[in-house]
Amino acid sequence: MAYLRRILWGLTVAYWATLFVFTHLPPKDLPHVEVNDKFEHFFAYGLLSGMMGVTLWAAFPTRRWVSWLPLVIVAGAAAYGAFDELTQPLTHRNCDIHDWFADCSGAFVAAVVLFALQRAFGATVSARLTASPAPST
User: Is residue 114 a contact partner of residue 54, using CB atoms and an 8 Å limit?
Assistant: First the structure.
């Protein structure tokens, strides 16, 4: 399971770094996508929050605070989204409160899904993630 945790951390960090780079590129360097800007924010932060939630749940399955994980994920995404929006003018992009609302909305939906998964599979996942591997013969 340690291998799975490393993969999850690697994917999450790589996605977060990619998201940071794309949200700080000047507008002229961005690829044009035929999708609403708010949907892009909603989807990007929903995915980031979901990845963070699953990664932290896998990393610390038996910690008491795991039941608070959805709230932690939303608060963290809201804080990072605010930082992201406030630093965008440095690269000639607009700081938009509506983008931040879309970020928070995506994080909230991911947190609700994570909460439902924790309620449905929490004990099973925690048991599997904390179980020691069977000895090889």
Answer: yes
Q: Residue 22: which of 13, 10, 31 has the closest Cα?
A: 31
At residue 68, the 3 state secondary structure works out as helix
Compute and round to an integer the Cα radius of gyration of the chain.
17
Helix axes 97-130, 69-87, angle to 10 degrees: 140
Q: What is the rounded CA–CA span in Å between residue 41 and residue 104?
A: 9
pTM of the predicted model as reported, rounded to 2 decimal places: 0.82
Asked if 67 contacts 118 with a C-beta cutoff of 8 angstroms, the reply is yes
pLDDT on residue 8: 93
Nearest to 55 by CA among 43, 72, 40: 72
Would you list the DSSP string of 21-32? HHHTS-GGGSPP
Instruction: Give the list of residues 6+ apart from residue 7 with CB closer than 8 angstroms, or none.
Output: none
Residue 132, both tokens: 């020691």
For the chain, the domains span 2-24+36-130
**Model pLDDT, residue 29:** 75
In sequence order, what DSSP letters do the residues of 105-120 get, joined into one string?
HHHHHHHHHHHHHHHH
Q: Give the separation between CA 123 and CA 62, rounded to whole angstroms.
A: 9
